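Lab notebook, bench 4. We co-purified these components, and the gel suggests they stay together. Before we commit to crystallization screens, I want a quick structural picture of the whole thing.
Request: model the full complex, all chains together.
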Amino acid sequence: MSNENKLLGVASSPHVSSPIGTRSLMLDVLIALVPALCAAVYFFGPRALIATIISVVACEIFEMGYRKLLHKTQTNGDLSAAVTGVLLAFVCPVTLPYWMLIIGDFFAIVVVKQLFGGLGKNFINPALGGRAFLMLSYPVAMTTWAVPGKWSGLISAADAVTGATPLSVDFMHSGVLPEASIMDMFVGNVGGCIGEVSAVMLLAGGIYLIARGVIRPNIPVAFIATVAVLTFIFPQGGNDRVTWMLYELLGGGLFLGAFFMATDYVTSPTSPKGEIVFGIGCGLLTVFIRYFGGYPEGVSYAILIMNVCVWFIDQATKPARFGFTKEMKEKAKAAKKAAKEGAAK
Amino acid sequence: MDIKKQFKEGLVTQNPVLVQLLGMCSTMAITTVFFNGVGMGLSVLIILTCSNIVISALRKVIPNSIRIACFIVVIATFVTIVDLLLKAFVPALSDSLGVFIPLIVVNCIILGRAEGFCYKNGVAASAVDGIFQGIGYTWVLVVMCLVRELLGNGTILGGLSFINDSNGIRILPEGVGALGISLPVGGFLVLACLIAFMQWALARSEKKKTEEVAQ
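Here is the predicted assembly.
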């Protein structure tokens, strides 16, 4: 905190002070995630709430412990670890044992975020990094899905009633439409991860974020539109185009990923043009992984792969400097060319 | 010849894996089970020592312009010998190490020591260098194996046929180990942590030394 002030407070008065900081932005994200959590508790029972709370507490403790160990300033107040905790819980099945969730939190906070320097320095989304690690380490537990409406036990979820998700190998991955109706998929009455099932609640949260100016609509719109167009053009299993597209859009973690994970400030491009490229890339990869990959769901890996490409996207989509006209651009180009030819000679 | 200095360099300050960052490929690939790590480490130790001796003895005969090719011929000879010996006497180890034994031919540690040390030093010094650099490589592999096997599989000392039928001693309950640590990603993570710890320890001892000198 004190360091930042030393670096930034340079201009002479008058100053406009803004109440917007990391903390208020993260608080808005948390508020936007509440509706999805409510839907999760309704469909999967109080275990969803407990898992989310445990994940948040674990993330905060790991963040505090790591920064204390390395004698760094404490950053718990900015709530970014809490957002990571909620998002990681949201992309795990409700039946996942709590200790596995805590291992995922450790990986997300310590390995993905803090080892690279803390908030603003991580190169991939911490929550998705944690999910990828859990997916590698505990593939069975991470793909056991509780049936909605049948609440699983609070302590042990071993006796939970489990079933397939709409995107699993039984259904859409093999081109077969699931039993759930489109309305069920929209409301969230399907199997899946804690926070990803209810498209309507996620949409409400996403619209809240856009209305509050926390995120720009570029990434989510480009992401979802790309998936929509591709699935509309190439329906699988001889299904009706529109029905297939709606099932693809509402199934899996598309809305959660598009609104809350792909838009992470640290791991998305800075310019509006770059954001659109990023969103389209995420959409393409999602559909490719769903259609051709071994995993039924591709949103998390699509976002992770595009996270790694952000530096290149930022380089390619640098906005023009203010006052830099077309003639100046051509002049600069000609000068560069001349210099190159001169060097070649 | 300074044996004490060579010992310290091989094991710590010039450790082939943690400081020179050589031989990463085999380090990452085979350190999932204790037995593999020990077998690989000892194979490299033997090959490194033998090829060091031969290359050092031939250093005045080998023409400078084709020295790398000559080194490789010598190294490949010993690798073939070890490969065949393993196949004959320890087939289980030979199976689990697979292609990584023949690949010792292109292991940078051996070529690196040939180029950087044996080509300039005498036979005895080269032999000692081979032994200590080999031990330096072996201990890192063993530590990586212990950590990755414990975290990834929940056991230690796996692969030894006389302990629990090659399954090792179970420390963590079944299903607790994070499989990710046994996969390549875990190899990178554990190696990175070891290197970071090594650098921290070296920097600390360096600091202590300069403080003592200043006093």
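The first strand of chain A starts at residue 145 and ends at 146. Worth comparing against the SEC data before the next meeting. Chain A touches chain B at residues 103, 111, 133, 136-139 (CB under 8 Å).
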